[in-house]
Design a protein that fits this description.
Elements: H1 2-22, H2 29-33, E1 40-42, E2 51-57, H3 72-79, E3 93-99, E4 102-107, E5 112-117, E6 122-126, E7 137-142, E8 148-152, E9 157-161, E10 167-171, E11 179-185, E12 188-193, E13 198-203, E14 209-214, E15 226-231, E16 237-241, E17 246-250, E18 256-260, E19 274-279, E20 285-289, E21 294-298, E22 304-308, E23 322-328, H4 332-335, E24 343-353, E25 360-368
Antiparallel strand pairs: 1-2, 2-25, 3-4, 4-5, 5-6, 7-8, 8-9, 9-10, 11-12, 12-13, 13-14, 15-16, 16-17, 17-18, 19-20, 20-21, 21-22, 23-24, 24-25
């Protein structure tokens, strides 16, 4: 077992080194040639586009409604026109969740999560206190009731908060596991444990462990450094098996179904550092690759359909060590005005970046009403 894990670690380090050198190969020519004012589409025009880069959020001033300070011109002269609070934002983003226009961004360095409230044109930061102090929060999941579940890898617990960010409870004893992501499914919590390389299933009400599946290894059904999890419309689980350079699909009872990704490599369809995963209502899988700094979209049969985003150094709206992704249909009304006229959005895609000028990039999936598409 120790020898097998050592080989896996060596493979992971080699892939990380190679991807750091070769990531620009994933950049799209259309993105490199676009100017700073033209709309950024994937695929690019004249092809029928499906995804448009809409906007990004990094600091409070990106979303807050500008309010005139008291004191008039004299206050502006003495204190300056800028409001220091507008520069507040997450220091090192990781997990992201979009819920009815509110973008929640977990700050692994700031010990909490930021909320960019787009419809309310406001910003706030949830910082736990007392028994809810967060040491190293990583990911966040929001259920249908608006309850928020935050994984904390340093505490080794999952912290639950209500819709007003009040602490409710902690799952697990300190140091019992090292959760990197959590999924809420009815009365169950599926917990990605990077420490034991498995998926734990907890009772949502009591926190009791009901079952688990996986374990360290490269074979099907096993994991090496799993990081993220998502639930598809087929009620199957999609899990980023980061150290094995793939995404695995399971039933909710832990039975292996399918694997995505051709293997470790630099070509489209390969992975070097897969992390965040999301699935739309049509069953299309979105996978963030932190090393390639792009997002790949697969059909539910595993065929590569499209990839979008590119390293932040190559274009506006680019990705900079992206970590997580989320999809939301209810948020469309709050972002439609960012889209090009005639491009009707169907759902919103948000991607969190650990570094760079954009904490969160916002994309929209849709179609031009005047163009024909292959799936029509």
């Amino acid at each position: 077992m120790q020898s097998r894990n050592l080989n896996l670690k060596i493979r992971f380090l080699i892939a990380f080194f190679l991807s750091a050198c070769m990531a620009p190969a994933f950049a799209q020519d259309s993105a490199d040639s676009a100017d700073d004012t033209s709309a950024l589409f994937y695929p690019s025009l004249p092809d029928a586009p499906r995804i448009q880069y809409l906007t990004s959020f990094s600091v409070a001033g990106d979303v807050k409604e500008k309010k005139k300070k008291k004191g008039g011109w004299l206050s502006d002269f003495v204190l300056g026109e800028e409001n220091p609070e507008d520069d507040e934002g997450p220091e090192k983003p990781y997990g992201v969740s979009l819920n009815n226009g509110q973008i929640h961004v977990v700050d692994t360095r700031g010990g909490g999560y930021a909320i960019f409230d787009v419809p309310g044109k406001d910003y706030r930061f949830a910082l736990g206190s007392g028994s809810a102090v967060m040491s190293k929060p990583v990911n966040i999941e929001i259920d249908d009731a608006g309850l928020k579940y935050v994984t904390d890898t340093e505490r080794g617990q999952i912290l639950a908060f209500d819709s007003n960010d009040r602490f409710l409870r902690a799952y697990g004893k300190r140091g019992e596991f090292r959760p990197t992501d959590v999924l809420v499914d009815e009365n169950r919590l599926y917990v990605v444990d990077i420490q034991t390389h498995r998926i734990m299933v907890l009772d949502k009400e009591t926190g009791t462990e009901l079952s688990s599946f996986g374990g360290p290894g490269a074979e099907q059904n096993n994991f090496f450094q799993p990081t993220n999890i998502a639930l598809g419309p087929d009620k199957h689980l999609y899990i980023s098996d980061t150290g094995n350079f793939r995404v695995q699909k399971f039933t909710r009872d832990g039975e292996f179904v399918q694997s995505f990704g051709a293997g470790v490599g630099t070509a489209p369809g390969d992975f070097a550092r897969p992390k965040g995963v999301a699935v739309d209502r049509m069953g299309r899988l979105y996978v963030v690759d932190a090393a390639f700094e792009t997002v790949q979209m697969f059909s539910n049969q595993g065929d590569l359909l499209l990839f979008f985003g590119e390293p932040a150094s190559t274009h506006r709206g680019g990705l900079d060590l992206p970590a997580d992704i989320d999809i939301d249909y209810d948020s469309v009304p709050f972002f439609q005005h960012y889209a090009e006229p005639g491009f009707n959005l169907e759902y919103i895609i948000v991607v969190a970046n650990q570094f760079g000028n954009s904490s969160v990039n916002v994309f929209g999936f849709g179609r031009y009403e005047s163009m024909s598409y292959d799936d029509e």
